[in-house]
Each structure stands twice: as structure tokens, then as C-alpha cells.
Design a protein that fits this description.
Structural class of chain B: alpha/beta
Strand content of chain B: 15-25%
Strand order of the largest sheet of chain B: 2-1-3-4-5
Oligomer: heterodimer
Number of strands of chain A: 8
Structural class of chain A: alpha/beta
Distance between the termini of chain B: 26 Å
Helix content of chain B: 40-55%
CATH architecture of chain B: 3-Layer(aba) Sandwich
Largest sheet of chain B: 5 strands, parallel
Mean pLDDT of chain B: 93
Helix content of chain A: 40-55%
Strand content of chain A: 5-15%
Number of strands of chain B: 5
CATH class of chain B: Alpha Beta
CATH superfamily of the largest domain in chain A: P-loop containing nucleotide triphosphate hydrolases
Radius of gyration of chain A: 22 Å
CATH architecture of the largest domain in chain A: 3-Layer(aba) Sandwich
Order of helices and strands of chain B: EHEHEHEHEH
CATH superfamily of chain B: Cobalamin-binding domain
Number of domains of chain B: 1
Chain lengths: 316, 142
């Protein structure tokens, strides 16, 4: 693709499924370049054809390997598959090693699979700040199943809840008290609970624990499928694919309202900026507030309120 | 005042061919990350087609190929394939064991830089960063 293409030509190439145009549009969004706004605006009328499958779960549960196998199933069914893989950024350097592709090597030369790795860039909900825009770009470019893999923290990754049509939460036996960890936060958002590494001892027990936890929940919240897979061999992955397609066909979209999502993203982004700034800012008034807190003359919430009263942090 | 942070550069760290000695590429990937870069890391044994598709999809600025067992001889195929895919702006660097006579051959084939044993972390970070910014300027035309 030559750089001589105009903005309109680039958007047309994107919608025609040109992978280079898609890659570049994603970078524009990631880098917050002005071109990104016009692209995102132009594609709005063409969104909603893709179905989005979110995959989350504790680290080491086998999410990437499972996704690779699941992509194979989708390819067999003739789907064009986009994968958005989010890995954590270092809070110290801002850098990241994005290694999810290691497990997806079998699709490395398949033009029907488009994988993009994103760094979380300080966003705490399991996705990156731009992940939902990246999904929209893939949607507009004609990828019809889009898999979003979150940072594998296993808790509180509720971002995925309103960014996906179907949510898969992956766990595995032998990861310590993983079921306990699942309870807090992400179990509530699951449509499909996968017990991966089903060839290991304890898989049935893990599945049974999950089932009994579901049984305790309110009636309306019990419509969750449980499924056992062994991603390394592919065992159970075809069944998982069927479960997901059945839910999609039933119109099982709980993809949340865009307004709500935008609100939460703005709140998070503003909070991140503020945190960064307050950590680095050298200002007497800030020092005074911190000293009052240290001396016990103020409580944390009052100190935070005092900061917000005093801070005028951006001028543009 | 809150200033905007520079966008991290994106680097692909990979190995071509049959050599599996990946300690070097892991170390490099880790310190590029610590220098604030976003590093897409692959397992060894990649082929040229896979690396090109990956570089395209991930929209990287630099591809770093680690070579300890003559696999650098595959790199001219990579630079050619990148150019054919319209990715000529991407800078390719090679690190590892590269004989002097091969270095000039690599440079002629479009490789931007060869890091030999003893290259320091600071040198590598500075060079990769400068190449990445040049690649981005060339592609974006600004």
C-alpha cells in the first residue's frame, strides 16, 4: 500500500478487507492520530455484522492455546476470524512483551485470520483503552467472528462484559484456588465457563465446583454453559464452538450500550492521566496535602478531595 | 500540566529458520520492553511468509531477527518479501553471530543494522528507537 493513498481511499481499502489498511487504521487509533477520528466516523454505518466473542480467565489457564484451536474450528466453518489479544503494559516503563501469537503460530500464514496484539497501556479492566475501536475496525473490514482475549488477571475484567456478544471464562484444574478467584467479578459475566486442561486430574471436580456455584445464583443468572476442553489436543473445542454459535444464533447479544461503554472508558482514561500526573507533579500545595495525611491531620478521602479542588491540570 | 506521552514504538523480535537458540532474542525482547517499547515476540522457527504477515498485521516499525547459526542468510528473502508486501518502510535489524563478509551482503539487501556480540543494551535500544521513528516518519509522511 502506498502512502500516496488519500484518506478516503484508505477507508475504502479498509472496508474492502485490505489487511494493510486495517493494520494501519488500528495503529492510527492506537496512536490517537487525527486520521483515526474520520475513519471511526466513516465506518459507523457499517458496523454490527461481526459477532464478538470475549475470552478471559486466570493466567496459565490456556486462553491463547484454546483460542488458536477455536480459530481452527471457525476457519473450518468458513469464517474470517479476527483476534484482538491484549497483554499487560509494564507500569514502570510503559513497554510490553506481546506474546500471545506464540500459541497461534498455526494460523501465521492464513490470510483468513488477522491477529493484532495490543498492550493494555495502564487500563485496568482487562482490555486496552482502544480495544473496542479495534473490534469496530475489524468488523468494518469484514472479519465476521472477532475474538477478544483479555489480560489474564482473572478478576475484575468486566470490560469484556459489554464489549462482547458472548463471553467465555476459561479456568483449569490445579491452578490453586482458581475457582475462588473466579467468584469475584468475572463469574458474573460468563456465558460459557470452560474448564480447560480437561485431561488433568481434578477437571471434573473443577467443573462440578463451578456448576454448584452457578446453582446458588439467582434463577435468571443461571443460564451459563459449562464445557470441558483440552486445548492442546483440540478435545471439546468443536463442542465449544457449537455452544457459542447457538448462543449467537439465539440473538444472545448482551453487548452493552455504547454510551455506557464510552462513559466508563472516559472515566478510566481521565483517572489514569490524573494518577500519572499526581505521581510526578512537584508542587508545594500537593506536598502539603500529603504531609497533612502523613501526620494524621487528614483522612485519605479528604486529601483526595483537596487535591481535586486545587488541581487545574490541563489547559488545552 | 499533563503532557502527552510519546507513542511506544512497536518491534517484532523473531528468529527465522531451524535454529532454536532463543535466549538472546528473549533477553533483547525484555530490555526493549524495559525501554518502553511494545515488543511482539514469536517463538523461533518462523518462515518468511509468516513473519511478513505478522509484521503487516501488527504494523511494527522494526523487525529484529536473532541469528546464531547462519539463519541470517535467510534475511535477504525477508527484506525482499517485506518490500513486495508494501512494507518497505519497516526497518530490519539482525543480531547475533554474523561474519563480516555477510554483514555487507545483508546491508546491500536492505538490512539497516547488524548487532554483533558485545553490543550494549544502550546501543541496541538507541539504534532500534531511531530506526523505528524513521520507519514511522517514512510511512506516515510526516
Amino acid at each position: 500500500m502506498s502512502q500516496a493513498l488519500s484518506r478516503t481511499e484508505r477507508i475504502a481499502a479498509l472496508m474492502n478487507g485490505d489487511p494493510a489498511a486495517l493494520a494501519r487504521a488500528i495503529s492510527d487509533v492506537e496512536r490517537q492520530r487525527p486520521a483515526a477520528r474520520s475513519t471511526l466516523e466513516a465506518i459507523q454505518p457499517h458496523l454490527g455484522r461481526a459477532r464478538v466473542i470475549g475470552v478471559t480467565g486466570v493466567p496459565g489457564a490456556g486462553k491463547s492455546t484454546l483460542i488458536s484451536r477455536y480459530v481452527t474450528e471457525l476457519r473450518r466453518a468458513g469464517r474470517r476470524v479476527g483476534v484482538v489479544a491484549v497483554d499487560p503494559s509494564s507500569p514502570i516503563s510503559g513497554g510490553a512483551v506481546l506474546g500471545d501469537r506464540i500459541r497461534m503460530a498455526e494460523h501465521a500464514t492464513d490470510p483468513g485470520v488477522f491477529v493484532r496484539s495490543l498492550a493494555s497501556r495502564g487500563h485496568a479492566g482487562g482490555l486496552s483503552p482502544t480495544a473496542t475501536h479495534v473490534v469496530d475496525l475489524m468488523d468494518a473490514a469484514g472479519w465476521d467472528r472477532i475474538i477478544v482475549e483479555t489480560v489474564g488477571a482473572g478478576q475484575g475484567e468486566v470490560d469484556i462484559a459489554d464489549a462482547a456478544d458472548v463471553r467465555i471464562v476459561v479456568s483449569a484444574p490445579g491452578l490453586g484456588d482458581d475457582v475462588q478467584a473466579l467468584k469475584a467479578g468475572i463469574l458474573e459475566i460468563a456465558d460459557v465457563l470452560v474448564v480447560n486442561k480437561a485431561d488433568l486430574a481434578g477437571a471434573d471436580q473443577t467443573a462440578a465446583q463451578l456448576a454448584s456455584m452457578l446453582a446458588l445464583r439467582a434463577e435468571h443468572a443461571r443460564d451459563v454453559s459449562i464445557c470441558k476442553t483440552t486445548a492442546t489436543t483440540g478435545q471439546g473445542v468443536a463442542e465449544l464452538a457449537v455452544i457459542v454459535e447457538t448462543r449467537l444464533a439465539a440473538g444472545d447479544s448482551r453487548r452493552g450500550c455504547a454510551a455506557q461503554r464510552a462513559r466508563r472508558m472516559v472515566a478510566t482514561a481521565a483517572g489514569n492521566l490524573l494518577t500519572r500526573e499526581l505521581r510526578e507533579l512537584e508542587a508545594p500545595w500537593l506536598q502539603e496535602i500529603c504531609e497533612r495525611l502523613q501526620r494524621g491531620q487528614s483522612d485519605l478521602e479528604s486529601a483526595a478531595r483537596a487535591v481535586l479542588r486545587s488541581a487545574k491540570l490541563v489547559d488545552e | 500540566m499533563i503532557s502527552r506521552r510519546a507513542e511506544p514504538v512497536r518491534v517484532l523480535v523473531t528468529k527465522l529458520g531451524l535454529d532454536g537458540h532463543d535466549r538472546g532474542s528473549r533477553v533483547v525482547a525484555a530490555f526493549l520492553r524495559d525501554a518502553g517499547m511494545e515488543v511482539i515476540y514469536t517463538s523461533p522457527w518462523q518462515d518468511v511468509t509468516a513473519v511478513v504477515q505478522l509484521a503487516l498485521q501488527e504494523d511494527v516499525d522494526v523487525v529484529g531477527v536473532s541469528s546464531l547459526a547462519t539463519d541470517h542468510l535467510l534475511v535477504p528473502k525477508l527484506t525482499e518479501a517485506l518490500a513486495q508486501a508494501g512494507l518497505g518502510h519497516i526497518r530490519v535489524v539482525v543480531g547475533g553471530i554474523v561474519p563480516d563478509e555477510d554483514e555487507s551482503m545483508l546491508k546491500r539487501s536492505g538490512v539497516s543494522h547488524v548487532f554483533h556480540p558485545g553490543s550494549t543494551r544502550e546501543e541496541i535500544v538507541a539504534e532500534v528507537d531511531a530506526l523505528a521513528r524513521a520507519a514511522r516518519r517514512e510511512r506516515d509522511g510526516d
